[in-house]
Amino acid sequence: MDPCRESLPPLERGKSGESELKSSRQSSSMPGERGVAGVGSGANIAAFRAWKAFRATNRFGCLDGLRCLSIVAVIWHHGPGGSLNGVAGRGYMGVSLFFAISGFLITTLLLREHEASGTISLSRFYVRRSLRIFALYFAVLGIYCILIYLAPPGPEMARRFYSNLPYFLSYTSNWFVGRSGTFAFAWSLAAEEQFYSTWPSTLRYFRPRRAIWLLATVLAATITWRFLAPLSVRPHNFGLVVLSNVPMAICWGCVVAVVLHNSRSFGLVWRILGWRWAWLVILTLVLVVLGAFPRDDVPVNFLFALLVASCVIREDIVIAPLMHQRLVVHIGVISYGMYLLHGLVYDAADKVGARFGWHVHGVLGFVVILLLTIGVASLSFRYYETPFLRMKSRFEGPRNRSVKALAECAPPQQTTS
Questions:
Q1: How far apart are alpha carbons 54 and 51 in whole angstroms?
Q2: Residue 2: its pLDDT value, please?
Q3: DSSP 41
Q4: 207 belongs to a structural domain
Q5: Residue 369, pLDDT above cutoff 70
Q6: Of the candidates 72, 218, 255, 276, which lies 20 to 30 Å from 352 by C-alpha distance?
């Protein structure tokens, strides 16, 4: 589902090697590049070098693997997983993993742009986001409108869909529609779009240091509300409606981006997550928490952000070869299209299955639906979305283009989604 696939500008300024490590004890040309506390020890030298590698990376390959895991979990939940208990019945939490990835990537992109140019170009940002998101979203929404008009699922369902259409068009369905009914999956896209509409401006006008405190306040308020009110309770006050729909995972993803952007805080995280098996420990904790707290998503949202951190803090984690497999990467790339289109695939398969007495919501049906969704989303990505994506390069700005030119002159580096 995650529509964020910007190429992040790598570290542009600063010296390289151990000379920078030594000079960072005294001064630095960039905020946050002040070296690691206790520079001189082998562990801190390794942490500093890892931070430099992180800042030089403009595409984190392992995140495609996390996207693949997320979209497969969501499609599983809308199939056989929806009727199961325990971990197998919580595939819907794949959306929260998408949120954590988006929060991290967007914030990292904005922080690097702000550091390189002293500001954030909101116009270019929103044009790039629009080219990535709107074309497919409104096309799929249009398909739903046509299908419901030609073959209404029932007068009441059709009436509800068309009455909710203004909220789908304005990305406010998470506030006014909820998470059930036709096209209800748009709630997550609405939440993400609301994040895009507020967070870049906050970073630009409040500056990163102040913005992170504002983010922490929102996060604390969101967590407090989740503890005070059950997830099944829908508040009537509009302010509480907005607060209850702030995705905690996005906020935690933003926090991870800010922490890893700074060399000192990166060094602290490196001591905990800087080993190649850290992702497995975090993933195990995720599964344990999903099973132990079926009605509480607060701890798992935090763990999702840690999982993202464990996959980007170093690119050579043990599971990296699997995450870099062609099919896994491809599913990660087209995950946004899969999220939007899998409902249509399920509906079509339901109609075909009804004629032949085949229940498509079983395990075999899930496999078939998954393969069909991959096929449809692949065609959409290649023939419909790609022309829009190619136009994004026109709005990168001269500063980002110069960064890319510098990167092309340097030795090949790993590239972020």
A1: 5
A2: 65
A3: B
A4: yes
A5: yes
A6: 72
Closest by CA position to 314, among listed 264, 265, 260: 260
Kindly state whether residue 11 falls inside one of the protein's structural domains: no
Domain enclosing residue 236, as ranges: 62-389
Alpha-carbon distance of 168 to 233, in angstroms, equals 22
What does the alpha-carbon distance between residue 113 and residue 2 come to, in Å, rounded to a whole number?
Answer: 21
More confident residue, 151 or 334: 334
Determine the Cα–Cα distance for residues 301 and 241; give it in Å rounded to an integer: 19
Q: How far is CA 338 from CA 163, 381, 401, in A?
A: 26, 10, 30
Residue 186 CA neighbour count, 13 Å, CB half: 26
Nearest Cα neighbor of 35 from 11, 8, 14 is 14
pTM, whole model, 2 decimals?
0.86
What lies within 8 Å, CB to CB, of 362 at 6+ separation is 79, 80
By the 8 A CB rule, do 16 and 410 touch?
Answer: no
Is 265 inside a domain boundary? yes
Give the mean pLDDT of 396-413: 42
For residue 282, CA distances in Å to 106, 243, 413 come to 22, 28, 27
End-to-end CA distance of the chain: 13
pLDDT at 44: 83
What pLDDT, in 10s, does the model give residues 57-67? 988 999 999 99
- The tokens of 241 are what? 């409606």
Determine what percent of the chain is predicted with pLDDT higher than 70. Answer: 83
Report yes or no: 304 and 247 within 8 Å, Cβ to Cβ.
Answer: no
| Contact residues for 235 (Cβ-Cβ < 8 A; gap 6+) | 229, 241, 244
**pLDDT tier for residue 233 given thresholds of 50, 70 and 90:** low
Mean pLDDT of the chain: 85
Contact 182, 148 (CB under 8 A): yes
- 240 pLDDT band (50/70/90 cuts)? confident
Q: CA gyration radius for the chain?
A: 22
Q: Give whole-number Cα distances, 267 to 8, 25, 52, in Å.
A: 21, 14, 11
Distance between CA atoms of residues 152 and 1, nearest Å: 27
Q: Count the domains in the chain.
A: 1
Residue 7 lies in a domain: no
Which of 75, 258, 96 is closest to 188 using CA atoms? Answer: 96
As to burial, measured by CB atoms within 10 angstroms (0-12 exposed, 13-18 middle, 19+ buried), residue 283 is: middle
Strand partners, 39: 41
